[in-house]
Write a structure and sequence with these properties.
single chain, about 55 residues, alpha+beta, four-stranded antiparallel β-sheet, 4 strands, about 35% strand, elongated
Length: about 55
């Protein structure tokens, strides 16, 4: 079973032995208005929206 742990702007990915298997850096795109970015990102997480990223 894989586990994700959110750390500021990225996620750590852990394997079943609790070892870090990798990192995921989400690309949320351009969010407007910029001052609402944190709220929009939180809502994206709650909605389980698909977000591209880079590792």
């Amino acid at each position: 079973m894989w586990k994700l742990d959110r750390e500021d702007d990225f996620f750590r990915i852990f394997d079943k032995n609790h070892n870090i298997a990798g990192y995921f850096v989400p690309d949320y795109g351009n969010i407007f208005p910029e001052d609402k970015a944190d709220e929009v990102i939180e809502q994206m997480h709650k909605n389980r929206d698909k977000v591209p990223g880079d590792t």
